[in-house]
Amino acid sequence: MKNLKKIKGDASFRQFYRKKNKDLSSIIVFAKKDKLKNLIIYDSINRLLNQNKILAPILYNENYKKNYIEIQDFGDETIFKILKKKKYNKYNIFKKIIEILNQIQLIKSTKTKNFKQKEYKLPKYDMEILVKEANLFCDWYAKKELNKKDVKIFIIKFKAIVKKLTLELKLKNNVFVHRDFHVSNLMLVNNQIGLIDSQDALIGNRAYDLASLIDDVRLKTPKLLKKRIYNLYINSQKKLNKNKFKNDFEILSILRNLKIIGIFTRLAIRDNKKNYLRLIPYAWELINLRINENKIFNDLKYLLTQNFNKKIR
């Protein structure tokens, strides 16, 4: 089709095209693989967000049989791009993002209908999923970097530590978690912030999305700014147990960045998407930043130091 222009995709199996017809611009999301998640569930969660007055792409058309949906075009101005420009006050932008996060966490309903008129219920972000995700570090990164003998021992120890850390989480799984809440998935749309890439949303721990935002591997931010954003959120929560939240924030940040190292390695090996490898050193930096803040990470710190020296990282 002449009016379709392929646009830059992400780490998923989806392909994106911009469709232009006179004054209307829309996005075609094409997904042959994982199409239930990437088309039906994505639309379901966008509907849930819109119902709660959070800006997410509206569905225009769908052709599930032909593996695509047509959705609202939010343009190309991600918050990531805006933060890269020196003229903007980063802290003020993060203030607005924290407002969106608070809105998301106020969502009460866990059910919505998709374009097939079937009900979709958001699953719980339980310990099993967290452990499985963190273990991607073993499955891809550790297996690539360690020899066969060392990797077997490492995997046994690593999995035991990760399971123990998930048992140390204090807060309930009771809020909407976007699960990829970072500045590349936040868009500036007519002076409002819109949210994309929501298909992996679950009901989980309120510290998770803040950890995604502050310890974002794609955007390097100074420690002082990280602390200010963290305090922004804390001060916006009246009934929050600060000690429990800090504990969970640190655990989830580390587990998330271990998962990310595993995913980025998998993207390079399995999908030949090697550009993500350049982000791994900063993911290590973020792990190191949090691992020194709590004694519960001592075993993990020792295991990682033993097996992955500074040259590897």
Would you kindly provide a written description of the structure presented here, covering whatever features stand out?
It is a single chain. Helices cover 48% and strands 15% of the residues. It is an alpha+beta fold and 313 residues long. A hairpin with a 5-residue loop joins strand 6 (111-113) and strand 7 (119-121). The longest helix is centred in the C-terminal third of the chain and has 30 residues, at 242-271. The relative contact order is 0.12. It has a single domain, classed as Aminoglycoside phosphotransferase (APH), C-terminal lobe (Aminoglycoside 3'-phosphotransferase, Chain: A, domain 2, Alpha-Beta Complex), CATH 3.90.1200. Helix 6 (148-167) runs antiparallel to helix 11 (298-307) and helix 9 (242-271) runs antiparallel to helix 10. It contains eleven helices and eleven strands.
